[in-house]
C-alpha cells in the first residue's frame, strides 16, 4: 500500500457521498454579475455585501497606496517596523467601531487564532456556542483551557455552565455575532449581562455583522448598543469591506497585550499597503453615508419575501444571509448546477460545513443587485425548485 493511498481513498469517499467540492473559477471583478468558469452569471453567493470589491473609490485608494508604499511591507511589523498606513487604519477603525484600540491582522481567521490562545491557557475556561465558526473552534483548540460548548444561543445553559465554573481564574465567552450559515444573531445583550454577573470576558466574532448591522454598518455591538461591555470584537475585511484582512478591536489594555504576544501578529507579515488603503476608503465611505447598508437591507427584504411566497424554507435568518434549505447534499449540488445552467451562481453548502441533512444554498444578496437582478434570480430558483420537487 502506497503512502498516499489513504488520500485517494478519502477523495473517492467524498465523491461517493456527494460531498466533493468542485471549486469554480472567477474570471472578472466580483460584482452583481461576475464571470465564473468563463460564463457571465448573476452572483448570488459572494460575501460582497456592499459591492465594495469593485468600488472605484477603494480601487483608487489602493492604486495610490501602491505607488507610495509599494506592493508589501516586506517584514513582520514587530521586527522591522510598521507602516504608517497600518497605524492610521487601526486608529480609524477603532474610532469607527467606538472602541479604544484596534489591531490589524492578515485575515479574520488569523484574528481568532491570535486572540483566543493568547488570552486563555491552562486552568482557564472557554464558553463557546455550538454553531461558532471554524476559526473560533480552531482558536479554542490551540489553547489548554477547558472548553464548554453551550447549546446554540442558549443563555440559560451558558449561565448554568458559568455558575458551575465560577471559581475559574479566567473565563471567556466567545460567540459569533451573526451565525454565518443560518443568518441568526447572537443574543448579545443577554450574554453580556450574564458575563458581567460572573466576571467573564466576552468576545464576539463580527465577520458577518461588519458593514451590515448597526449605524452605517458599525456592527453588532453598535446594533445592540452594548459599547464598552464587550471586551473584544473580531472582524474580517474580506466580506462587507470587499478587500482582505482581519482585525481585533476593544479595550486598550487587551489590544496592546495582543500586540505584544499574539503569534499571528508577531510571526507573520502584515496586509499589503493596497489592501489597507482600500479598507480605509471603505470606512470613509460608510462614515459619510449609510446608503449602501440601506440598499443591502432593502434588497434582502425584497428577495426573501419573493422566495417565501414561492414556498422555500429560508430557516431562521435575521440578516441578509438567506439559507435556502434543501436537506441532502446531492439535492443541493444538483440545485446549484441547474441554477448555473440558468446563469445564476449560488453554491451548495453541505457537510461538514453544515450538519448532515441540512444542506442548503446560502444566498447572499448585495447592495449592488438591482431589483431586476433579484427577479431574475427568483425566477431561476422557482423553475429549478419545481423541477426538483422542492416547492
Verbal overview:
Strand 6, helix 8 and strand 7 form a beta-alpha-beta unit. The strands form 3 sheets. The chain has a 7-stranded mixed β-sheet, sandwiched between helices. A 3-stranded mixed β-sheet has the order 1-2-11. A 3-stranded antiparallel β-sheet has the order 10-13-12. It has 2 domains: 127 residues, Aspartate Aminotransferase, domain 1, CATH 3.90.1150.10; 233 residues, Aspartate Aminotransferase, domain 2 (3-Layer(aba) Sandwich). It has 15 helices and 13 strands. The chain has 391 residues and is α/β, with parallel strands linked by helices. The longest helix has 20 residues. The chain is globular, with a radius of gyration of 21 Å.
How many beta strands in the DSSP annotation?
13
> What is the chains' assembly state?
single chain
The end-to-end distance, rounded to whole angstroms, is: 48 Å
CATH second-level architecture of the largest domain: 3-Layer(aba) Sandwich
How would you write the strand order of the largest sheet?
3-9-8-7-6-4-5
CATH topology of the largest domain: Aspartate Aminotransferase, domain 2
Q: Spans with pLDDT under 50 lasting ≥5 residues?
A: none
Number of helices: 15
Written as H for each helix and E for each strand, in order along the chain, the element string is: HEEHHHEHEHEHEHEHEEHHHHEHEEEH
**Basic shape:** globular
Q: Can you identify the CATH superfamily of the largest domain?
A: Type I PLP-dependent aspartate aminotransferase-like (Major domain)
Domains (count): 2
Amino acid at each position: 500500500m502506497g503512502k498516499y493511498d489513504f488520500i485517494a481513498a478519502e477523495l473517492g469517499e467524498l465523491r461517493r457521498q456527494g460531498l466533493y467540492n468542485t471549486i469554480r473559477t472567477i474570471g472578472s471583478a466580483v460584482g452583481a454579475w461576475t464571470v465564473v468558469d468563463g460564463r457571465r452569471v448573476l452572483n448570488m453567493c459572494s460575501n460582497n455585501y456592499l459591492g465594495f470589491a469593485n468600488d472605484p473609490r477603494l480601487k483608487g485608494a489602493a492604486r495610490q497606496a501602491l505607488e507610495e508604499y509599494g506592493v508589501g511591507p516586506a517584514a513582520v511589523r514587530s521586527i522591522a517596523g510598521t507602516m504608517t498606513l497600518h497605524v492610521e487604519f487601526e486608529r480609524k477603525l477603532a474610532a469607527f467601531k467606538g472602541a479604544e484600540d484596534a489591531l490589524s491582522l492578515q485575515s479574520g481567521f488569523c484574528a481568532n487564532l491570535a486572540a483566543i490562545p493568547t488570552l486563555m491557557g491552562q486552568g482557564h475556561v472557554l464558553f463557546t456556542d455550538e454553531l461558532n465558526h471554524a476559526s473560533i473552534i480552531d482558536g479554542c483548540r490551540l489553547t489548554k483551557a477547558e472548553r464548554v460548548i453551550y447549546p446554540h444561543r442558549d443563555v440559560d445553559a451558558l449561565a448554568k455552565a458559568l455558575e458551575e465554573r465560577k471559581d475559574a481564574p479566567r473565563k471567556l465567552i466567545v460567540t459569533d455575532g451573526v451565525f454565518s450559515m443560518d443568518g441568526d444573531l447572537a443574543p448579545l445583550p443577554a450574554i453580556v449581562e450574564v458575563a458581567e454577573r460572573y466576571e467573564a470576558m466576552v468576545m464576539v466574532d463580527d465577520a458577518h455583522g461588519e458593514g451590515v448591522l448597526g449605524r452605517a454598518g458599525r456592527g453588532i455591538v453598535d446594533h445592540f448598543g452594548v459599547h464598552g461591555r464587550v471586551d473584544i470584537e473580531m472582524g474580517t475585511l474580506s466580506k462587507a469591506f470587499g478587500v482582505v484582512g482581519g482585525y481585533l478591536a476593544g479595550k486598550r489594555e487587551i489590544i496592546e497585550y495582543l500586540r505584544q504576544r499574539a503569534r499571528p501578529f508577531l510571526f507573520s507579515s502584515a496586509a499589503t499597503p493596497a489592501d489597507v488603503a482600500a479598507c480605509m476608503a471603505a470606512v470613509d465611505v460608510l462614515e459619510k453615508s449609510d446608503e449602501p447598508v440601506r440598499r443591502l437591507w432593502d434588497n434582502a427584504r425584497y428577495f426573501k419575501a419573493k422566495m417565501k411566497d414561492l414556498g422555500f424554507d429560508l430557516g431562521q435568518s435575521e440578516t441578509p444571509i438567506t439559507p435556502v434549505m434543501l436537506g441532502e447534499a446531492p439535492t443541493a449540488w444538483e440545485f446549484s448546477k441547474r441554477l448555473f445552467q440558468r446563469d445564476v451562481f449560488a453554491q451548495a453548502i453541505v457537510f461538514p460545513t453544515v450538519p448532515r441533512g441540512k444542506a442548503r444554498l446560502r444566498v447572499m444578496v448585495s447592495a449592488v443587485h438591482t431589483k431586476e437582478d433579484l427577479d431574475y434570480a427568483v425566477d431561476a430558483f422557482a423553475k429549478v425548485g419545481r423541477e426538483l420537487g422542492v416547492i
